[in-house]
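Ticket closed. Logging final result for Glycosyltransferase.
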Amino acid sequence: MDNSSFLVSIIVPCYNASYYIKEVLESIQNQTHYNIECIVINDGSTDNTPEIINSFQDKRFQIYSQENKGLSDTRNCGLEKATGDFIFFCDSDDLLPSNALESLLSEYTGKEDIIAGKTATYAWEEKRNVSFLPQPKEKIRIENKNMEVLILNMTEGLSPIAQNKLYRASFLKENNLTFLSGIYHEDELWFFETMFRAKNVIFIPEITYLYTVDNTQSITKKNSDKNLSGYLSVIQTIYNNYYLKYPEQSSIAYYIAYLKKIIIGNYKHHSNYSEEAVQRMEKVFKEVNPEFSDNIPLKNIEKKYFRYLNAVSLKDAATIKKEYFNNPVNSLRKHYKILLFSIFNSN
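Final structure:
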């Protein structure tokens, strides 16, 4: 299949990105796959980001400006304007290797809904790759009939970022997939919704994205009530829109427990949330309380572990903090192993 004719819509939301954006757009401009439309949206920047992005004289670049609406709404705006066969999201402080789109498109056979590349974490100041975000080590094609990708994420770990994935545009439109407005950690929900709907997914081992890790202004690197609230909105949405609507998909309950683990882990390491935020966490944890079925391709020990995580989440925040945050037994998995050991030795 000749994939060189496919049009790729690259959506780049920008907010106060003047330090990075020139190099970011140059890395897009220099793609070996020439057939692109780059939709750059200035989301109410107060620095000189607009001047920089407007200086790009390339017919493939479409520049827009709007009042500040946040990342989700800005990406959704880009989705509305996109006309490409494929959609690709790039943040305004990340870079693309020159062959990124060509590498991703080379794997398309006509049936893949999502093609995901390998993401290197990148030190911008030092101009070097540091590590890699979680990804299968080898190429893997998944016929995603029963949440296989989401189960793989629960057990092995995958990168839930929206970037560095080539989405077939018709797949997104057919499933009315957009970002939830006004929350942090919108990528966690987007990852769930796209991987829940996708029928065919491929992960490739080539590095196709450089994810900057030394941007101290990044929202995801800060922790606040809004971060906690974002995660709580994610599990509420999954519970209401998927768990309750698709009871035959028993894996959803386990995925909710998996996300609860992330929230509790954040609470442990960043327990400076307001009392009001913690009270909301307790309330949401009790409301989002799924039932667990054995009809899921997980090992018995894994099933028990996720059920245990959900049981922990139903305790009040003070108990969670007292029982699970004390060193040296400072992780939920360690607590679980100790619990199993004590049960085994009591028999």
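Residues 301 and 340 are 10 Å apart (CA to CA). No further action required.
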